[in-house]
């Protein structure tokens, strides 16, 4: 117990660690607030009734839990970091196939910065496509048209989730 209290005292005295902890707590609070903001064109009452009624049934209950509650209201952050992670995996795989990207990986720091920039650019269209896919997947999973799939509303929903 003394070691624990000593470590807490060290954390309180170190300003850089204190700033990192405060930043992490603020980001967690922002994330929890964004979970409650739904995407446009979502029938919240139908979505919540279907997720709550099927939440005890196993598979979808685990899926809802893994998304941290963002599926309950199909929030703005339902896509999460998946597009960026997928883009970085794609760029790593392309690095061994495309000669230009292979040259960039051998250039050191400058090349890595350029690859990171390409990864960010690639994550935007991936986020858009994954948003569209998530709309159709949730409608299929919940067995109905909970989220509007009219072309204009689908584009607005996907754009909102991408941003």
Helices and strands in order:
Blueprint: H1 2-13, H2 15-34, H3 44-54, H4 59-66, H5 82-95, H6 99-106, H7 109-142, H8 151-162
Helix pairs in contact: 5-7, 6-7, 7-8
Distance between the termini: 46 Å
Query: Average pLDDT, to the nearest integer?
Result: 83
Total beta strand runs: 0
Rg result:
21 Å
Summing up helix and strand content along with how strands pair, one would put the structural category as mainly alpha
Poorly predicted runs: none
Percent in helix:
over 70%
In DSSP terms (H or I, runs of 4 or more residues), the helix count works out at: 8
Largest sheet properties: none
Q: How many domains? A: 2
The secondary-structure element order is HHHHHHHH
Describe this structure in words.
The chain has 163 residues and is an all-alpha fold. It folds into two domains: 1-34; 39-162, no CATH class. It has eight helices and no strands. It has helices at 2-13, 15-34, 44-54, 59-66, 82-95, 99-106, 109-142, 151-162. Helix 6 crosses helix 7 (109-142) and helix 7 (109-142) packs across helix 8 (151-162). The mean pLDDT is 83.
Task: Give me a quick take on this structure.
The protein is mainly alpha-helical and 163 residues long. It contains eight helices and no strands. The protein is flat, with a radius of gyration of 21 Å.
């Amino acid at each position: 117990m003394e070691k624990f209290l000593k470590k807490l005292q060290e954390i309180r005295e170190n300003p850089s660690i204190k700033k990192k902890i405060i930043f992490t707590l603020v980001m967690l609070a922002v994330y929890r607030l964004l979970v409650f903001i739904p995407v446009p064109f979502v029938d919240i009452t139908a979505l919540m009734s279907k997720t709550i009624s099927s939440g005890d049934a196993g598979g979808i209950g685990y899926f809802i839990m893994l998304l941290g509650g963002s599926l309950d209201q199909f929030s703005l952050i339902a896509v999460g970091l998946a597009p960026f992670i997928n883009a970085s995996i794609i760029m790593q795989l392309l690095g061994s196939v495309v000669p230009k990207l292979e040259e960039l990986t051998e250039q050191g720091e400058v090349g890595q910065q350029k690859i990171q920039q390409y990864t960010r650019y690639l994550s935007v269209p991936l986020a858009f496509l994954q948003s569209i896919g998530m709309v159709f997947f949730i409608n299929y999973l919940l067995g109905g048209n909970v989220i509007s799939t009219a072309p204009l509303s689908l584009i607005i929903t996907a754009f909102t989730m991408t941003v």
